[in-house]
């Protein structure tokens, strides 16, 4: 019966994540990581592994949602594939390398870094910050460096990189709809490299729960991903009918509350 309750929690989380991903065009990591961390603690998983498991599981779940988002934006001709090609090598390297850093950092500082970055994302939403175009995209070396930075931060907080890549591309005079579509395409290599990295780094971990594969907890991955695939289109459809600007402010508030809940669960 206990397992039924946890599995139901994963299903509800998947529905919530998918809906907001479709409605607001945000990745699910900001919701998944704090909620999964709290659920894993409640299930009695080792405190040393809960944040790492939440990050790895969230990154793996983002693979399917990013693939779906990529296909949708490609159909609308919104993906700048030249940008994707130039930034992907750095993305793969930065994301994969950052999982090695994350695996060697204790849960407490990792949770603090996650909460701090999500607070930045929430404030960005509340203030509706949009950088003014002021320069062109850098060359291959510069794009690789930017990709490594975006991938590294994305791996540490289990996001698809949109909160970093969209402002960067907009700043470099890429049209907004192209920046969003290209960011969706960039999210796939981030998710794949992050998933492999968390799988490899948690492979020989001690105190891991049953049904985990590295730092990926399979029951949560399958249930969250399975439901979010169905609720994301619902959110996308409602995006044109609901006051999205207001909902973004509400979502920002929810992010802050979830991060506070995660920090409370970790430290208290």
Automatic annotation (TrEMBL):
Signal peptide range in chain numbering: none
Keywords annotated in UniProt: Cell membrane, Membrane, Transmembrane, Transmembrane helix
Membrane topology: Multi-pass membrane protein
Highest rank taxon of the organism: Bacteria
Cell location: Cell membrane; Membrane
Pfam families tied to this protein: TauE
One GO cellular component term: plasma membrane
TM helices/strands, residue ranges: 7-31, 51-70, 82-103, 109-127, 139-159, 179-200, 212-230, 250-267
Record family assignment: Belongs to the 4-toluene sulfonate uptake permease (TSUP) (TC 2.A.102) family.
PANTHER family assigned to the protein according to its UniProt record, in alphabetical order: MEMBRANE TRANSPORTER PROTEIN HI_0806-RELATED (PTHR43483)
The protein's name: Probable membrane transporter protein
